[in-house]
Each structure stands twice: as C-alpha cells, then as structure tokens.
Amino acid sequence: MSESESDSQQSPRAPQAPRAPGARQSRLSRRQRARAVRGGQYAVLLVVVLVVALAADWGEIRRAFFDVEVAKAQFPDIITTALVNTVVYTLLGFGFGLALGLMLALMRLSKVPPYRWLAVAYIEFFRGVPALLVFIALGFGVPLAFQMSLNQYVTVMLALGLVGAAYMAETIRAGILAVPKGQTEAARSLGMSQGRAMVSIVIPQALRIVLPPLTNELILLTKDSSLVYLLGLSLSQYELAKFGRDALNQNRSLTPILIAGLCYLVITLPLGHLVRRLEARTSKAR
User: Fold this and answer.
1) What is the distance between the alpha carbons of residues 216 and 114, in angstroms, rounded to a whole number?
2) Phi-psi region of 75 (alpha: psi -120 to 50; beta: other; left: phi over 0)
3) Based on the number of CB atoms within 10 Å of its own CB, is 218 exposed (0-12), middle (13-18) or buried (19 or more)?
4) In the predicted model, what is the mean pLDDT of the chain?
5) What is the distance between the alpha carbons of residues 217 and 274, in angstroms, rounded to a whole number?
6) What is the dihedral sign for C-alpha 267, 157, 109, 205?
7) Higher pLDDT residue, 59 or 255?
8) What is the pLDDT, as a whole number, of residue 54?
9) Which residue has the higher pLDDT, 87 or 237?
10) What is the pLDDT of residues 17-69, one digit of tens each?
C-alpha cells in the first residue's frame, strides 16, 4: 500500500455544514401542494359567495323568485293538471317510440338491403331534425296539407315518438349486438326459428342490457314534452311549461317558472336515480 493511499484512508473527513432547521420541510410534498391549492380554491369560492351575498338585493330576489302568494295560487292545478299531463304526454311518446324503435332496430339488422336503407334514412333524418320542427309539422303542417284534424294527444304521441324512436333504435340495436351469439345458436339447436329465437331469447336480453339508456331517453322525452305548448292547448291540456308561462304573464313573477322547474325535477330526479341503480346492477351482473 502506498503512502498516499494510507494517508487518504487515515485522514478524517471534512465536517459537513449543519443544516438549517426546517430545511427538510422546505419542499412540500405532492399531497401537501394539492391541499394548499384546494384550500385556495375554497377561499376564493368563499370570497365570491360573500361578495354576492352582500351585494344582492334579497328583497327583490324574494319578490321575483319566491313570492309566497303567487306560489300558493299555482296549487293544486299545477299538480292535478300540468304535472299529470306532462307524465301522460311523456308516456305516450315513449311507448310509441319504443315500439317503433324496436322495429327500426330489427330493420337495421336485417339482411334485406332495402330495410336497412329505410331504417338508416329514418334514423339519420329524425336525429338531425329539431324536435321543434316535428311538432310544428304535425301540429300545423299536416292538418293544412291534408285537410284533417289530429287529436291533441295523438299529435303529441307522434311528435315525441317519432323523434325518440330514432335514438332508441340505435340503443336497442347496440343491445341486440351485445347479446352473445351463443344464445342464438343454442336456441337454433333446440329447433327454434331465427325469428322465434330473436323474439324469445335475444330481444328480452337486449332490453335488459339497454334499460339504463332507455330510461335516459325517457328523461329526455319528459323535457321535450315542454314543446307541446306550441300546439295551442286548452286549460285542461296544459303541461308544466305552458302552465308556468301563462302564470308568468299573469303575475309578472318568475315564481311559477321556478315551481314548474321543481315539478320537472320531481319526475326526472327519481328517474336519474333509477338509471344509476340499473347501471350499477348491470355492471355487477357482468
């Protein structure tokens, strides 16, 4: 061993400079930074809420949105007439749209090209046309062109159903394609025809699969039923949007619109909860 090597091994190490207290904590961890950012966001939100609360004219807001006397005047008609009619219109449109959508889905899956072409043309047309135009066409165009008068409920059923069927057809078609082919093969091996296997085996399973999106479509039709006001309804045929609009014109207050919106939520919130339950059950089953 050389002298230089022995000296280097025996020489003591240079003392390190002492760390300043708290130097290890000078850098925040990722979780601490996230907490700090979240705390800053909460602080900004709190400041905005306080500014709005202090600057708002609560007396004017109460008069415009929460007029108790105007609210009392809406009951019970907004429930017994408007809410009931909204539910009836929605169910009529959904029932017709579901039947037509199922037929269109089968046409889209057919091996006959003209059936597929007709189904594709229908679906693309009614998915691209606003529901407002469909209501105008059936409520005013058809009676003028053919010199005929349609019942109000029939008009609503056709208008909502024709639009809803275009969306439900694609949903049902996706559900049918999601059913394993082994189900059909097993049914055919038992002697069932193709049509019988489709009706008895495939379609029930497909409807079970697409039940959550079909419930979403029911929610959309509930909101689209507000377009019924275009048809010139009588008092006994008012739905929520028409009822709230007329009450707004009479009272010069937004309270009726707020109540009508709450009535829509009475319908849509339980349906939304049902959709989440169905989706969770479907995922668990899979």
Assistant:
1) 30
2) beta
3) buried
4) 85
5) 13
6) positive
7) 255
8) 85
9) 87
10) 555 555 455 577 888 888 888 999 999 999 999 988 888 777 777 777 788 88
Q: Is the torsion defined by CA of 41, 42, 47, 51 positive or negative?
A: positive
Give CA–CA dist 262/68, Å, rounded: 15
- How far apart CA 179 and CA 173 sit, in angstroms, is 10
In angstroms, the CA 192 to CA 34 distance is 61
8 Å CB contact between 150 and 232: no
13: confidence class by pLDDT, cuts 50, 70, 90:
low
Cα maximum dimension of the chain? 119
Q: DSSP letter for 19, please.
A: P
- At what angle are helices 84-108 and 255-285 packed, to 10 degrees? 40
Rounded to an integer, what distance in angstroms lies between the CA atom of residue 12 and that of residue 266?
A: 81
Query: What number of residues does the chain have?
Result: 286
Q: Please state, in angstroms and as integers, the Cα–Cα distance from residue 31 to each residue in 22, 24, 233, following that order.
A: 19, 16, 59
Distance CA 166, CA 97 (A): 8
Contacts of 60 (CB under 8 A, 6+ apart): none
Tokens 């709190």 label which residue? 46
Instruction: Look at residues 186, 211, 210, 208 and name the one whose alpha carbon lies nearest to residue 196.
Output: 186
